[in-house]
Specification:
The chain is mainly α and 149 residues long. It has seven helices and no strands.
């Protein structure tokens, strides 16, 4: 049996939310980018559009699952501005949304816990890495002092 397609993926947020599409001219580039994202079928949203929609709080029930699927692959992905910008946008979502979407909260919490563990593991190995600097620095200092003699 063929898996059932998610029909929402073929629709735009404007359709799903019952919103009327904005028409040009747009007052700002942010409004233009948001209007284009709202008129894009969910399956065709770019990562940047997902980040934009999440940061603006538009259609969160539809775009947060897409954001989470991106974050599962790389929690610190830099989508538009800096590494981790999509994750930061998700972390700024209101408590009310998370209270109504606890399953999504649990998925994002799992991503954060995995990231915390990774950072902890990195921290355990960092002293070994930093000791290389100390050795290199001491060798460089001894070379410099032997040249001055």
């Amino acid at each position: 049996m063929k898996p059932r397609r998610n029909l929402d993926e073929d629709r735009t947020l404007n359709v799903l939310l019952g919103w009327k599409a904005d028409q040009p001219p747009y007052p700002t580039s942010l409004v233009e980018r948001a209007s284009i994202a709202l008129a894009t079928p969910l399956r065709d949203l770019t990562r940047e559009q997902v980040r934009l929609l999440v940061s603006q709080g538009f259609g969160l029930e539809f775009v947060v699952p897409k954001a989470i699927s991106i974050l599962v692959e790389n929690p610190l992905i830099g989508v538009t501005f800096y590494d981790g910008d999509l994750l930061m946008s998700c972390l700024k979502i209101s408590q009310e949304f998370w209270m109504e979407n606890q399953g999504l909260w649990m998925e994002l919490d799992g991503i954060l816990r995995s990231l915390d563990q990774t950072m902890s593991d990195i921290g355990k190995h960092r002293p070994q890495f930093e000791s290389a600097w100390e050795v290199w620095n001491s060798q460089d200092a001894s070379r410099t002092s032997s040249k001055n003699v």
